[in-house]
From TrEMBL:
Family: Belongs to the cytidylate kinase family. Type 1 subfamily.
Chief location category: cytoplasm
Binding site for ATP: G11, P12, A13, A14, A15, G16, K17, S18, T19
Key words, A-Z: ATP-binding, Cytoplasm, Kinase, Nucleotide-binding, Transferase
Class of enzymatic activity (EC top level): transferase
Domain of life: Bacteria
Span of domain Cytidylate kinase: 7-220
Protein name: Cytidylate kinase
InterPro entries, per the entry: Cytidylate_kin, Cytidylate_kinase_dom, P-loop_NTPase
Pfam families to which the protein is assigned, alphabetical: Cytidylate_kin (PF02224)
Molecular function via GO: kinase activity
Enzyme Commission number(s) from the entry: 2.7.4.25
Gene for this chain: cmk
Catalytic activity from the UniProt record: dCMP + ATP = dCDP + ADP; CMP + ATP = CDP + ADP
């Protein structure tokens, strides 16, 4: 029986990775794994327990003792930490402003990569993040690196924030995203970069469905004998 392939999707903040990865996984009948939600969950818990998001050792100890659970449902993915539903809480501005610091810690990333590889232990997986094709699933059959202009990504984030009742101006969002790009690409541990064998997709002028269909087309080509 065809168990599918591993699909790694990387890219900067608000490039549409999670939305497109979910659609791709659903259409292919694959498992979707949102690694960004895992870092957000750790950040949420660190803030709740007043742990410094720059303290690699303390964050690593926290990650070792908490249970992060990702559960797909018809309404979307449910994120839980130690049984608590934090799906909406991890999208708060406070978490968003601090997650880059958490994700930059070397030992945190090392342990997260271990956890993420265990989740993707079988074929038929779509995983998105910032170092999936380069660090987490370096042998994935299909690697995608997607991006969009800062302005386009800010507009997408603005729409998301509006739905959640978060008040953030377009100018501030552009700055937030540019700062996040800088932090992600310049960090020492697993910086954001395109894998040498990844397919580059600029989603600026593409619809969500168009991007998902292009990835599915590439996936079908990889599955052919």
């Amino acid at each position: 029986m065809d168990k599918g392939i591993q699909i790694a999707i990387d890219g900067p903040a608000a490039a549409g990775k999670s939305t497109i990865a979910k659609i791709t996984a659903t259409k292919l009948g694959y498992t979707y794994i949102d690694t960004g939600a895992m870092y957000r969950a750790l950040t949420y818990k660190a803030l709740e327990e007043h742990i410094d998001v720059y303290d690699d050792e303390a964050l690593t100890h926290l990650l070792e003792r908490i249970d992060i659970e990702l559960t797909p449902t018809e309404e979307g993915q449910i994120v839980r930490v130690d049984g608590e539903d934090i799906t909406e809480a991890i999208r708060s501005q406070e978490v968003t402003s601090n997650v880059s610091a958490t994700a930059a810690q070397p030992h945190v990333r090392e342990l997260m990569v271990e956890k993420q590889r265990l989740l993707a232990n079988s074929k038929g997986v779509v995983m998105d993040g910032r170092d999936i094709g380069t660090a987490v699933l370096p042998n994935a059959e299909l690697k995608i690196f997607m991006t969009a202009s800062v302005e386009e990504r800010a507009e997408r984030r603005f729409a998301e924030n509006t739905k959640r009742g978060i008040n953030r101006s377009m100018a501030q969002l552009c700055k937030d995203i540019a700062d996040r790009d800088k932090a992600d690409t310049e960090r020492i541990a697993s910086p954001l970069k395109q894998a040498s064998d990844a397919i580059f997709i600029d989603t600026t002028s593409m619809s969500i469905e168009q991007v998902a269909d292009e990835i599915i087309q590439h996936a079908e080509e990889r599955k052919r004998p």
